[in-house]
Each structure stands twice: as structure tokens, then as C-alpha cells.
Write a structure and sequence with these properties.
The structure holds 2 protein chains of 2 kinds. By secondary structure, chain A is mainly alpha-helical. Chain A has 3 helices and no strands. Among the domains of chain B are: 143 residues, Rossmann fold (3-Layer(aba) Sandwich); 100 residues, 2-Layer Sandwich (GMP Synthetase, Chain A, domain 3). The chains are: A mainly alpha, B alpha/beta.
């Protein structure tokens, strides 16, 4: 797993998983539809990504589907970091 | 000015007719647990499907009404075996697993009070509610056990912790319950509760102080029965889906009691939001009646409707919504996508049942929450005189004439707060609205500082109290700000103690802290660091000034604002 996916996964596990929740969580685990991250908490996850990767994610792109797995989140972040690099 | 609280449970008029339809007589026994399970079996519907359950990981379970009868008996016998007596509170702190629905009815069969709490609550939110309720036992699951264990020492009344998916040896004071592995209890002596016996305790937030425990009674049953039948239009062949979590009143009145006292089949999806997953669930179970919420509908709208068009959702024949005003765009969108509108319904934790609504067949005025349900007398009162306003379009306080069966009987430990809800013979909802010339109600807003986010009420006091525990926070004010999906979200204004500077990291840290301690609903979606907060001369923070700026509304009278 690349460093970005690992960092996002670590953050999700640390912040959103109950300490007694023994579910295995990896890059493909459903976070929103799986009930690990709810739609309200998505805001704090979005803030974390924006801080860590120095990007701005428009609300229209921060959909429950885009935030549903670490993999889909990483792809979203990569899209914005690439756009920033081009600019 | 007179004060009139709810009258003890004697059903009259429409409600008496409804009571008799389900075999109830004034003064006789009534037990919600028995009526939603055993009585349905006695009607010859024991083999009918009661619950179609699925979770996010694809697990599923189907229960008939006879299964429900036996499992609620088994749960009830277990609770009684713990030494929990009638009237004592038993908290259900569970995700939407089958044990939550079964446990709810099982607790009621024993005469104990069911206290369901939203499983996403953090330990502070859990603590204040268990402490106020003097809860005797809590039923939870392994993943939430840590929160319970961390506050247990502060809860002297909490005698037992029941874990429904326990593994290994139980901890001190804990006991495991393998409900589906236990020997079914064929016969259980249901406690002879009456119309005034306490049944369900839901906590609801206000402007000041900690949340209040709204005490419901078994005699509410005719109200949930009749409104489910008339508003949700439940029929014998229906498969019904209510999106609400039983930690909130919609999830008990219409996610457990209403459908099952009508003998309806209900589907439960223990999963977070996902457009495809939700539509698949509707299509798979051929859902016919769907009771949802504006926030969920607006999330579906964001996707556009393509996902709905790719599936056969023609099974849906009736759609309703609750929690916050349903905007006209959502009504129009659902007509376009599903071929029928979502019908708005209005009620509160305190009312126990739908009180203002769009009934099937009634002309829908998009954006209006409909008319008073037959049997409910509703009006709007002048804000000052608290007398009914006669002029169509005039904005006033929504008020209801007490007398319907499901109005709560008190706020636990706060009888004065309960008494203050009644004036001039009316129950005051705390919401503002107008009534048009046809009798349709048009919601305007709350009459207090409570924040309605995604259909859930969040009290500013709880958030501000939790913020003050952060070492950097000197003062704070929590208000609502507009949100396109959740109608309102929480925004907080914070002044920092000397030595602390505003930063992005501090903002994120505060957000996460509130989410963990209270709940995701209470987490500020925005934090604004300020040098000072507007206060009255007596030093009280003026939330309304901050709120008005967020909503681009006039700030009103500022004569009491302190000059800095």
C-alpha cells in the first residue's frame, strides 16, 4: 500500500473505528455504506485530507460515494493534487 | 393564563375507535410488546414475515411474527431474570441489529421502560442520558462496550451490562446474551401494564440544560396504530421501510410500533447511506411504502436519478418524509423519479405520533407539511398573547390541543419544563408556522436555539459544555447555519485562552473531540475563531445575533447588547 493510502487508512482507523470494533478495515472496506464513517463525520475527514495534502475539495466532489473507501478517497485526493501540480 | 398538561389515558372519539380496532378498552390492560407480537399471531398471522433484516456486510435474517413472539418472550424472560423490575429503565445501545427491535418489545413485555439510544453517541452523551434515567441495565454489542465501560463507575444505578455478541468471558457486571441460540420461551407472563404505564423514554434536546427525558406510555398505541394505517397507508400486503434509527422517536413509533401493531412486514437495512445500496434494497425486497427523511432524499437527489432509472422501483406505491420541512424541489423531484411525491409529515418526540400531515389522496402543496391529522386539533398562536391567530398566512407558534393518546406524560425529573409546554389549554410545540386559507401548515422555523440537523435536534448547551472542556477554549457559542443537504448544521464560534492561537490543526482537533464525546450530529461543521462573543449586559452570550448573521436575517433588538 502506498504512503497516501496507508496514511488515510491509519487516520480512519484511529478516528472513526470504535476501540472495541474488531472489524478488519483495508483500502476497499466500505466506510460510509458500512457505517464506519457517517455523512456528518465526512466533513472532518475532508478537512483532514485538505490539511494533509494542501488541497481544497469542493463540496460537490465530497459525495458519500467518493468517500466510501480509502481507495476511492485516495483517487479523489490524487485528482486534486495532480491538478494543483499542473497549475 | 392556565396550564393544562396531558390528561391520563382515556381514549375518546377517533382514538377510542382506533383502540377498539386493536382490541383495547378504556381501563383495560395494554402492552405494546404483546400487541405488536402475540396479538398479531392470535389473528392468524404468525407465519407472516415481520422483519426482513440486512446489514452492510450482506448478512440477513428473516423473522415471522411467531418468531417475533418467541424471541421477545425470550428476551423478556432474560430481562426479568436479571432482576429488572417494572418501571425500571433498560437502555438499548445497539446498531440496527435484530436484537434492538426484539429487545425493545421484550423490555416492554416485562413492564420495564425501553430507553433506546443512538449507538453513534459518544460517552458524554451516553453518560448524561443514563445518569438522568437512572438506568438499571444496558444492552449493547462488543463494538460499543468500551464507551459503556469507561463511564460505568459514574453510574451507580447501572447494575447490569448485557452484550448480545459477547465473546470470551464477560467482564465484571457483564452478561452475554445469545438471543438466537437461547432456548425459545414459549409462554411469558406479560406485565399487566395499563394506558398510563411508562413505556419508552426518548431524550430530546432543548436550548438550555442537558437533554430532557420524554416519557411515553403504553396507552399511546392507538395513536401509532391509526396514524400508521392512515398516513403511511399500511395494508396487509405491504413491505414497509423506515429509514430512522430507533435511537430517535421515528425509529420506535414508526420503525417498530406502528408497522407491527398493524401486522405489516417491515424491512430494516443496518447500513450507512449509499444510493446504489438503498435502491438495491428497495428493488430486492419490493418495498411498497417508504418513510424517509429530507436529508436522505436530498442525498439521493444529488446523484440525479440515474441510479433509480436503472432499477425497477415500480414496487414503491407510497412515500412519506419526516424530520424537517420537505422542500418543494424534493417533492417535485420524487414525482419525476418515482412517479409519486414524498408526502411530508410533522410531529415531535413529545407528540409520539404524526400530528400534521399530507394524507394519501390529499392535494399536495409542495413545501407545505399538510393539515392537522383527523382527531388532532392544531393551530398557530400569537407569539405574545398565545391566542390562536385567525388570519391566513400569519406566522405563529404551532400549538396542539392535548387529548391525543401519545403525548408524553412528563419530562423525567423536569416536571416544571413539562408544565411550561402548556398554555391556555394548548401544547406548545416550539415550532413556528403559518396556516393558509385551505388549512395547510407552512413551516417557518424553531422558536428557540435548538439546531435541527438532518432531522435530529441538537442542543447548543451540550456542545458548548463539551467545548469548554477543551484546554484551548475560553468561551463558545453553538448556532445553526444553512446547509443544502441537512437543512441546518452546527457552527461554533470560539474564543481561545491566552497562549493558544487559531490554527487548522486546532480546528480539526476540536471537531473530532466533539464528534467522539457527543456524536457526529453535534460535531461542528465549521469553527470560527473570534476575539469576543456578543453578550448581553448581564454577560449572557447572544446566540441569536450570531445565528441571524449565518442566515442573513435581521438581528432584531440589540438594546441589551453589551458595549465592548
Amino acid at each position: 500500500m502506498d504512503p497516501m493510502r496507508q496514511a488515510i487508512l491509519d487516520y480512519v482507523k484511529r478516528e472513526y473505528l470504535e476501540e472495541d470494533d474488531d472489524r478488519e478495515v483495508d483500502a476497499s472496506t466500505r466506510l460510509i455504506s458500512g457505517g464506519i464513517v457517517d455523512s456528518f463525520s465526512m466533513v472532518s475527514l475532508k478537512r483532514f485530507l485538505e490539511r494533509k495534502y494542501a488541497i481544497s475539495i469542493p463540496d460537490a466532489d465530497a459525495s458519500p460515494e467518493a468517500f466510501d473507501t480509502v481507495e476511492s478517497i485516495a483517487r479523489l485526493v490524487e485528482r486534486f493534487t495532480a491538478a494543483k501540480a499542473k497549475a | 393564563m392556565t396550564t393544562t398538561a396531558a390528561q391520563p389515558g382515556t381514549w375518546t372519539g377517533t382514538w377510542l375507535e382506533a383502540a377498539r380496532e386493536i382490541g383495547l378498552e378504556p381501563g383495560g390492560p395494554v402492552n405494546i410488546g404483546w400487541h405488536c407480537s402475540d396479538r398479531i399471531c392470535r389473528m392468524g398471522l404468525g407465519a407472516k414475515r415481520a422483519l426482513l433484516w440486512e446489514d452492510a456486510e450482506g448478512r440477513s435474517r428473516t423473522l415471522t411474527f411467531d418468531d417475533l413472539r418467541l424471541l421477545t418472550n425470550t428476551f423478556a424472560a432474560f430481562v426479568r431474570g436479571l432482576g429488572v423490575g417494572p418501571g425500571e429503565r433498560v437502555c438499548l445501545f445497539l446498531d440496527r441489529v435484530p436484537e434492538l427491535y426484539i429487545g425493545f418489545l421484550g423490555i416492554l413485555k416485562t413492564g420495564a421502560v425501553a430507553q433506546p439510544l443512538f449507538s453513534a453517541f459518544g460517552e458524554d452523551s451516553l453518560h448524561v442520558r443514563l445518569q438522568d434515567a437512572e438506568t438499571a441495565a444496558i444492552v449493547t454489542q462488543r463494538k460499543h462496550l468500551g464507551k459503556v465501560r469507561r463511564i460505568r463507575e459514574k453510574l451507580p444505578h447501572l447494575r447490569r451490562i448485557v452484550v448480545v455478541d459477547g465473546a470470551g468471558a464477560p467482564g465484571p457486571g457483564e452478561v452475554h446474551l445469545d438471543l438466537f441460540g437461547a432456548a425459545p420461551v414459549q409462554e411469558f407472563a406479560v406485565h399487566p401494564t395499563t394506558a398510563d404505564s411508562p413505556s419508552v423514554l426518548h431524550y430530546t434536546s432543548g436550548t438550555t440544560g442537558q437533554p430532557k427525558g420524554a416519557q411515553h406510555v403504553h396507552g399511546s398505541l392507538p395513536a401509532q396504530y391509526l396514524t400508521s394505517k392512515r398516513v403511511l397507508d399500511l395494508r396487509p400486503e405491504d413491505v414497509y421501510w423506515c429509514n430512522a434509527d430507533p435511537g430517535w422517536v421515528t425509529g420506535t413509533s414508526y420503525g417498530i410500533i406502528g408497522p407491527w401493531v398493524n401486522g405489516a412486514t417491515q424491512a430494516v437495512l443496518d447500513s450507512g447511506f449509499n444510493t446504489d445500496r438503498w435502491y438495491d434494497f428497495v428493488a430486492k425486497h419490493r418495498i411498497t411504502v417508504w418513510y424517509s427523511a429530507p436529508t436522505a432524499i436530498r442525498l439521493l437527489m444529488r446523484e440525479g436519478g440515474e441510479a433509480a432509472r436503472r432499477r425497477d422501483l415500480s414496487c414503491l406505491r407510497h412515500l412519506c418524509s419526516v424530520g424537517e420541512p420537505l422542500n418543494a424541489e424534493a417533492v417535485v423531484w420524487s414525482e419525476r423519479i418515482f412517479g409519486r411525491p414524498f408526502l411530508d409529515t410533522y410531529w415531535q418526540t413529545e407528540t409520539g405520533c404524526i400530528v400534521i400531515t399530507n394524507l394519501p389522496g390529499m392535494k399536495v402543496k409542495p413545501g407545505s407539511m399538510g393539515k392537522a391529522f383527523p382527531g388532532i386539533e392544531a393551530t398557530v398562536l400569537d407569539m405574545n398573547s398565545l391566542r390562536p391567530l385567525d388570519r391566513p398566512g400569519a406566522v405563529g407558534l404551532i400549538a396542539l390541543r392535548p387529548g391525543w393518546p401519545s403525548l408524553i406524560r412528563t419530562y423525567r425529573n423536569k416536571p416544571d419544563a413539562y408544565a411550561s409546554k402548556f398554555r391556555n389549554g394548548w401544547y406548545l410545540t416550539g415550532d413556528r408556522s403559518s396556516i393558509d386559507e385551505d388549512g395547510y401548515f407552512w413551516f417557518v422555523g424553531r422558536d428557540d436555539d435548538v439546531i435541527n440537523t438532518g432531522g435530529h435536534l441538537v442542543g447548543p448547551f451540550e456542545i458548548e459544555s463539551a467545548l469548554l472542556e477543551h484546554p484551548a477554549v475560553a468561551e463558545s457559542a453553538a448556532v445553526s447555519k444553512p446547509d443544502p443537504v441537512n437543512m441546518e448544521v452546527v457552527k461554533v464560534f470560539v474564543t481561545l485562552k491566552p497562549g493558544y492561537e487559531p490554527s487548522d490543526d486546532l480546528e480539526l482537533e476540536i471537531m473530532n473531540r466533539i464528534r467522539r464525546k457527543l456524536s457526529p450530529l453535534a460535531m461542528p461543521q465549521e469553527i470560527q475563531f473570534v476575539d469576543s462573543l456578543p453578550k448581553t449586559r448581564s454577560g449572557k452570550i447572544m446566540r441569536r445575533v450570531l445565528r441571524a448573521k449565518e442566515w442573513n436575517e435581521p438581528v432584531g433588538d440589540l438594546s441589551s447588547l453589551m458595549n465592548d
